Amino acid sequence: MNALLPTALVGSLPKPSWLSEPEKLWSPWKLSGDELAEGRLDALALAADEQRRAGLDIISDGEQTRQHFVTTFIEHLSGVDFDRRETVRIRNRYDASVPTVVGAVSREHPVFAEDAARLRALTSQPIKWALPGPMTMIDTLYDDHYRSREQLAWEFATILNQEAKELEAAGVDIIQFDEPAFNVFFDELKDWGVAALERATEGLRCETAVHICYGYGIKANTDWKATLGAEWRQYEESFPLLQRSTLDIVSLESHNSRVPVEVVELLRGKKVMLGAIDVASSDIESPEDVAATLRSALPYVDADKLIPSTNCGMAPLSRAVARDKMVALVQGAQLLRDELSAGSPGA
Ligand SMILES: [Zn+2]
């Protein structure tokens, strides 16, 4: 474990082809029943091992035990009818057929605590577990019960807080909430978005992170990115609020994106997970590419608060590409570590 520049993935890794169809989001499981339960945990062990062999410092679940980063969590809640579907616009970007909230939402059982305990048993390194954020959750549903995005988000925040406390008890060191919706709904972000996120983390003693990105490297997202102009300044909306929040770590995308790196200054004092790996391309970054992206942020974040990471999840990539990208991340971080210990960053 490197104390300086500890490396971590943002989230998903590709699943093995015997578990679900590769290079696809929402890919259906190939197993069922007890075989699926066992297969998911086998995949979790493989993902942890691949991260360890690549040399990552913080081990993530790689989202091996869930089909989708938002939907799988919601499937375990009551109050949502998955057979009653309506078409809505996801993050103002693309239409999707989504389940309907038909009654009060609640969580009857822990969702990921057993999986997290399994990951905890697999490694003595720090582990990170990702959950969807409240605003991103409500954006994947049609609400026919509360008819208030704010109220539904608040209910989800309470549920996420219960889940997060169980993950913490299972030994998770960092709980991360994925809030790509923070790059889209700026009025709600200010009105209640950050407050709902803080509610989800209330009372936790482990570290807490929020991941905000421009989405997986799928067509709807790359088309949307093409409309955002020469500079992507969406983070300027959320970062000042998060800098004043109780969250410990903020994860953003950087490498190959049009995000001006100086936006990181808006987070001064927080830990920053900086995306130094492009997940929308199968080209493997060189360690020098990774180091250059990380180095470019050093004027805006203290080196002891920088966590080299990926831009987003790697589920849509092939396993071989994901593996090579993990190695590039680790080697790039090491290049910068060597520079810093030589006392001449940027030289
Ligand atoms: Zn992301």
Structure notes:
The protein has 347 residues and is an alpha/beta fold. It has one domain: TIM Barrel. The protein is built from ten helices and ten strands. It has a seven-stranded parallel beta sheet with strand order 1-4-6-7-8-9-10. Helix 6 links the parallel strand 6 and strand 7. Helix 1 crosses helix 3. The longest helix has 23 residues. The model has no long low-confidence stretch (mean pLDDT 94). The structure holds zinc ion (ZN).
E-strand count: 10
State the domain count: 1
Rg (CA only): 19 Å
Shape: globular
Residue ranges: pLDDT <50 for 5 or more in a row?
none
Which architecture per CATH? Alpha-Beta Barrel
Q: Assign the CATH topology.
A: TIM Barrel
What does the largest sheet look like?
7 strands, parallel
Number of helices: 10
Can you list the strand order of the major beta sheet? 1-4-6-7-8-9-10
Order of helices and strands: HEHEEHEHEHEHEHHEEHEH
- Mean pLDDT comes to 94
- The N- to C-terminal Cα distance equals 26 Å
- How large a portion of the residues is in β-strands, by DSSP E? 15-25%
Bound molecules: zinc ion
CATH class designation: Alpha Beta
Assign the structural class, choosing from mainly alpha, mainly beta, alpha/beta, alpha+beta, or little secondary structure.
Answer: alpha/beta
Instruction: Name the helicity range.
Output: 25-40%
